[in-house]
Amino acid sequence: MFQNYLEVAPWHIRENTFDPENHEKSESIFSIGNGQMGQRANFEESYSGPSLQGSYVAGVYYPDKTRVGWWKNGYPEYFAKVLNSCNWIGLRVVIDGEELDLAKHKVLSFSRTLDMKRGLLQRQCIVQLSDGKKEVELVAERFCNLAEPDLGAISYAIKPINFSGGIKITSYLDFDVQNRDSNYGETFWVPLGAMVGEHSGVVAAATKKTDFHVAVAMRNLWLCNGFDFETHAEGTIDKMGAGNVYAFPLEQGKTYTLHKHCAVLSSMNHPKAALMQLAQDRVAMAADAGFESLRAAHVAAWAEKWKHSDIEIEGDAAAQQGIRFNIFQLHQTYTGEDERLNIGPKGFTGEKYGGSTYWDTEAYCLPFYLATEAPRVARNLLQYRYKHLPKAIENAEKLGFSNGAALYPMVTMNGEECHNEWEITFEEIHRNGAIAYAIYNYIRHTEDEAYLLEGGLDVLIGISRFWAQRVNWSEAKQKWVMLGVTGPNEYENNVNNNWYTNYIAAWTLRFTRESIATAQRIDANKTSALLTTLQFDAAKELDHWAAIVENIYYPIAEDLGIVLQQEGFLDKPQQLASDLPLNERPINQHWSWDRILRSVFIKQADVLQGFFFFEDDFTLDEIERNFNYYEPRTVHESSLSPCVHVVLAARLGKIEKAYELYLRTSRLDLDDYNKEVAEGLHITSMAGTWMSVVQGFGGMRIINNQLHFNPMLPKQWSALKFQVRWRKALLLVSLSADAVAVENLTSEKITCFVNGKPLTV
Amino acid sequence: MFQNYLEVAPWHIRENTFDPENHEKSESIFSIGNGQMGQRANFEESYSGPSLQGSYVAGVYYPDKTRVGWWKNGYPEYFAKVLNSCNWIGLRVVIDGEELDLAKHKVLSFSRTLDMKRGLLQRQCIVQLSDGKKEVELVAERFCNLAEPDLGAISYAIKPINFSGGIKITSYLDFDVQNRDSNYGETFWVPLGAMVGEHSGVVAAATKKTDFHVAVAMRNLWLCNGFDFETHAEGTIDKMGAGNVYAFPLEQGKTYTLHKHCAVLSSMNHPKAALMQLAQDRVAMAADAGFESLRAAHVAAWAEKWKHSDIEIEGDAAAQQGIRFNIFQLHQTYTGEDERLNIGPKGFTGEKYGGSTYWDTEAYCLPFYLATEAPRVARNLLQYRYKHLPKAIENAEKLGFSNGAALYPMVTMNGEECHNEWEITFEEIHRNGAIAYAIYNYIRHTEDEAYLLEGGLDVLIGISRFWAQRVNWSEAKQKWVMLGVTGPNEYENNVNNNWYTNYIAAWTLRFTRESIATAQRIDANKTSALLTTLQFDAAKELDHWAAIVENIYYPIAEDLGIVLQQEGFLDKPQQLASDLPLNERPINQHWSWDRILRSVFIKQADVLQGFFFFEDDFTLDEIERNFNYYEPRTVHESSLSPCVHVVLAARLGKIEKAYELYLRTSRLDLDDYNKEVAEGLHITSMAGTWMSVVQGFGGMRIINNQLHFNPMLPKQWSALKFQVRWRKALLLVSLSADAVAVENLTSEKITCFVNGKPLTV
Fold first, then answer.
1. How far is CA A191 from its chain centroid?
2. ipTM for the whole complex
3. What pTM value is reported for the model?
């Protein structure tokens, strides 16, 4: 197992010593957010060691001019970057003339804690000043308010342990920030204004090009030993920042606590002209309510989140911590209240990749939100894509498609494609299939068939039209073929007839045809009007689709009894992942791209992604043969890889394999498997971890529109408990080695199946 | 046909009116060079309109930090740029307070001429100053001295036609230049020093990183009406430049002529410490010799070049001009005197692409130099690659190859790979085959078998070792296969079993084995010592090679009687280039990359490149079937495409097709077919034009080590004359519609074959 420096505990993450080597990792892991804003666990006071400073506001992005080696026709000109926004936590603390900076002082004791139950980031430390004598205790706590998501608050307490002296402390807002991944070293904000009061300040800036406005206001209140403490401040101001500078004497043994309240408002939700004023009003209200009261509301909101989404694992403390960490980060990233937002691959924990939306959302994240949140949350994720349909059509047109064919982007913020590697941008088109599949998944889970007439059908038809144009008739094969694609396994590029892509394309065509029929059954007039609007030529288009479905080419290896990842796969030198020397793994860090491409090694589920999505279409034997062939050739170098394999392995009764893979997904970031957690967390794969537990070990399946549980616990676990929303009911599933209990927490009677036997609860 | 603005004439290129729209094109087309330095046809005086200023010094490059979208393991960090160097032609001409600038004045008459016979760039114009009255005549001539290639000279004459007045003229050197294609907008030169005398100046600078030093010195002499003219100069100097500023009265009707001599010396050829002094010495000597004398030597050197390389075409003035333009530019780019130099794709006519060496050299240029120059010229081109062998081995090691396997770079200056598109850099490996083929071609043309022991065998073994590792055994096919390659047709990427690549790989293995035997025959001891040095395991390696040769997979379409460009080619939607609407061509400007990749369309000869190289291995029937299949699917969007097709078409008696394609290659730049001549000329494809004439219409072939001519003239040509060096002889071949004459210009008796019949001359 990988070693790490973090305490194993059911409800928190904690580091107990300060090691600058770990600081950037901890900044990611201890990140906090509330779906509307979030930030890395940077220290409040100055820190001169390596640090990636990051505060982010949901939906606020910048289209940074793309950087490519060689331009290809069809590339997007811009890459939407998740923007580092105003640093609102900043404090500059100077004690007896010496600036507090953990990179420079002797740190006598230290702990940093992420309280996942209550959504709090806490820190306690004692540092020795450079005279080798004076000791100062810091106790800090902060949160991004889940109850009122435009608010953040910090409690920052300073105690001179063994001396009296003087302090100068500046509480500031700073918009003069950069993105480390800026393509041309540019800054992305232009100042709009800053003001400062005695205990308050406000600063606003606008993004270049996109003209998002963000205003951040602060209020600073002081306590001494828990009582109000009167002190005066000087104001400092420049065009990108504002600060309140306090200077007062420190008495030995007394605790001086700053409550810094901040309001972060963006033009996503408020009129631009009023933004600075509104931010000041909000923060004034927050300060009036007070830190303790806001904290209580925030903690209560977290309790509500946990109420239905918690998973309890007994007997395996690391697994328990891992799954809670994943669920916690998912909630911090996306709350489902705003259909313009999505689940960024790094959430609010880093800036890498850019864009907020990948196919991860539909393929990996949707099931979590379907099972743990009200249906509107999942529906908002679908609406997000519906709103982007015109851009998806434009995107397809740029590539030469027509007639309303839609190609959803690989990476996007506003619907426009951001990615610029031809083998991905133009070829990793299976993403379109996952978006269709999400509609299917949503409807079968919620029974909300009416959604088809509220966006679903538009999207399905757009995607189906794309598939219908993307295949071509092969005279040689007398089959429909799909040339030049990249499957989910990105260690193959530009292959012909990727089985998964062909399969999901044909499936989409079938499902769209069925969905048109469903819509007609629900509301024939509305459906007919919609089809007219879409200029849908039913006779011609449906016939063409049917012809493709009937006669699309699937590569198979008859003698092996498996489908082939793509044509020609068996020409590769045959090796297993277990043949790879440890010092060459991960291969993406040790091998040339050329060598990776030509090898048999698979980055993440490709064929098996299809067997995962469409399990019911295959016999257990078929699934097993394909699993046994492909999994040993898979290096799981995508964070999205293990979960799909866990679910299939559990299904096949390979419980040890499932558990081995589960460990890789559930503690991927906590244990920093890929040596890159410093750049941010792998948010979307966290939903995969949830799937591993609930669909893998919990064995949850929807078969013929019925809910099934075929659970199988790893021997390391004595019990597992999770909840699932199903239609109008809410079920509590409790598993132990030899018992399964399903409790219905609602009055809505339902029947589900446990190990194949009906159970009405 | 394409219209252009240039006069058709046998020995010169001329434009007769000044149109700023054409200026950047003309700057490319009228470029001059002497193999050691060269420059675009920028005006001497200031020009404020669009212009790409460029002066280049052979072999002086800068490794600009690469720009990529997404880094792939194995990419080179640097891209060697052809460097824009000191502007030595500069004059600032101010007449009666008004600066001469053709972008601003009324141009009453204008002609710019490239005298190809004598290697002179000439310009005559009359401009009207802004008062609407004063008229000034300019007559300028300049050359890069072919006889003394570190010298350049300008004669610049000014005549006030209808007024007397005053002139201030600054003759300057300027190192403060940029590359337009700099990846990060950086400049690449650091100043070393500048000095100025009354009629002289010198400036030196060094390239960043590579530390090449270049010093340029000038001497300025004045004449009035052809007689020495005494005038004084002020000096101007800054860290990157030096100038002599003259001011004197102008008398109406008198001609004031400046002779500006320049010496351009680089640390490629001279010690750094002495460079500035040596440049001053050289230019002093030049000035002493005088413009006329230098010009005479230069013109004589050109006469010598033309003596054996000229091609005469009767009856088709455009073709005559085209072929001479091509030959002229080839001579300007590469004279073969320095084995460290090569034939840059843009020569000294632009900065695009960077790197000096592509597989173009071996595949397209070598035959020209073999036939028109002494063998040492072609040999120097081979030695260039031999010297780069260690880098080619390193390059292969970066990709995971071992045991001395060599992969020559796609683009290079010093042997290191510069390119960074994985599908090219890592996959377009057929380039290695062309380098082996060039050795074969050189030896059969010159009979210099001894070359095998002077570098040839080292290179062949390195390349063969690469092929032997690059193929893999396919259990499925029970054949050796080559996966993941890009053939010469770059409109396909990452294909399996590209026929051409497989064929040339197997050919290399055979030829290397034969070459080892040849070397052993010549000098068994030396050969054995060499093989020991190379740790060549003859038994094992030769066996492995033989196994591959015997059992490598070639994709074919039996029913069509053709080989397949790659596996799966027949799955593509079948279309012909003639089906493409004109407004979608060239497809690389109108289609997305995705669409191009999936289409059947071929950029340049791929299968047919193999039939061109290895014509003797196939029956005429086989060649014809493949030509008839592939040529109609070829869009010829590479400048290297038409020539190969011309040669094959002529061979097949398709003389009209050959002529149609010939027109595309011979006047590609003169007629600006691809609308990009402003960026520079397509130097390497010019050698392809030569091949089209000599190997196409002249029907020159080497069959079984014998020289053959099977000529066939297009009906537009009444006669064709060219010379060919063959072993120790020099042949003059004269063709007309019904006669073929071969004259031997040496006393060395040889036998060649005309239309299959032996002819001893």
1. 30
2. 0.91
3. 0.94
